[in-house]
Amino acid sequence: MNNLLKILDEKKYILADGATGTNLFAMGLETGNPPEPWNINHKDRIRALHQGFVDAGSDLILTNSFGGNSFRLKLHNLENQVFELNKAAAMIAKEVADEASRTIVVAGSIGPTGEMIEPHGLMTPKQATEAFKEQAEGLLEGGVDTLWLETMYSIEELEAAIEATKEFDIPVCATMSFDTAGKTMMGFTPAELAKRSKSSGLFGLGGNCGVGASDLLAAIIDINRNMTDDTIIIAKANCGIPEFHDGAIVYSGTEELMAKYVHLALNSGARIVGGCCGTSFEHIKAMRKAMDEHEMKDLPNLQEIEENVGKLSAGSKAILTGQSDSVKKQRRSRRSK
Question: What does the pLDDT read at residue 303?
Fold first, then answer.
């Protein structure tokens, strides 16, 4: 049985891992260099990353393959190593999962290409699909339990990635990155993502990265209240807000804040909760404890979110209170019928 299906059958909700890039920078990765070659050149460090999250309590770990598509790897003259690097990424994570004393899900991370699909850019939907398919083939050969499309900001690119995965008999999850306007960079809303869930064939969907925990929670609530089926909801928030200190980017989220975020995310409808940028092993330990002790409560309101994990942006407040443009359009549409 697939490990993702197995663990969700065993548990009400599961804990995903934390940051890949932030933690690899702490291990010596230099800004501007791709992390994917480390799957071959520094296997021990990638293994330590995954092991650290498993030891901290994660049930699901993402492979070190976020930028492992041909478009991104071409920037470093590595476009001919897509299959090799992705397979290696999956194999390292699979080894850690197989050696664990409990069920661990290996999710094959697939990020955006960094290009724009026509007419906004020069990339065609076919080119995007081919790039994602090549990456998926490597991850599947390495033994992943699910393909994890993450930090997507264009619905056209997400649909190309979904198309690339259709021939594979494996659960596919997707998260989009919503900003302080309550939308992706290309103007796609959480509600619109939720409404496409049934036709997309996705096993899970939600939000990751983008902004801090408070704004991500608003997106998750909007997804939850617009769901048309029982697709699994995913929340993977950044660890607070990025701040520049002493020449380095530091995330403001404390262990206490991320623990509170877990409670609010579960109450918002998420079944898979994790951290994104800035989330360390110590944060995951605190999140594990919070999840284990969680007691379900009502959907959190604006005041509860702000009191626990920080102020909401104006765009997220509008979504949460039903004052966003998309919500108003929905109401006008219903009244006109």
Answer: 95
What pLDDT band is residue 334 in, cutting at 50, 70 and 90? very low
Hey, which residues does 316 pair with through a beta bridge? none
Identity of the amino acid at 108? G
221 close to 22: Cβ distance less than 8 angstroms: no
- Sign of the dihedral through C-alpha 272, 169, 145, 87: negative
Taking the C-alpha atoms of residue 110 and residue 151, their distance in angstroms, rounded to an integer, is: 9
DSSP 276: -
DSSP one-letter string for 281-307: HHHHHHHHHHHHT----PPP-HHHHHH
8 A C-beta contact, residue 231 and residue 201? no
- Please tell me the distance from the alpha carbon of residue 24 to that of residue 28, in angstroms, as a whole number: 6
CA 324 to chain centre: 24
Rounded CA-CA distance 146/290 in Å is: 25
Cα gap 109→138, rounded to integer Å = 11
CA separation for the pair 225, 221 (Å, rounded): 6
Q: What is the pLDDT of residues 268-320, one digit of tens each?
A: 999 999 999 999 999 999 999 999 999 999 999 999 999 999 999 999 999 88
Question: What pLDDT sits at residue 248?
Answer: 67
Q: What is the pLDDT of residue 336?
A: 43
Q: In what order do the strands lie in the sheet with 14-15?
A: 14-15, 272-275, 232-237, 204-208, 172-176, 146-152, 105-110, 60-62
At 146, give phi and psi (nearest 5°): -155, 150
Element (H, E) at 110: strand 105-110
Give how far the C-alpha of residue 85 lies from the chain's centroid of Cα atoms, to the nearest Å. 20
Separation between Cα atoms, residue 211 and residue 115, nearest integer Å: 21
Q: Which residues pair with 103 in a beta bridge?
A: none
Q: Per residue in 222-265, pLDDT tens? A: 999 999 888 999 999 999 877 777 766 778 889 999 999 999 99
Query: How many angstroms separate the most distant Cα atoms in the chain?
Result: 61
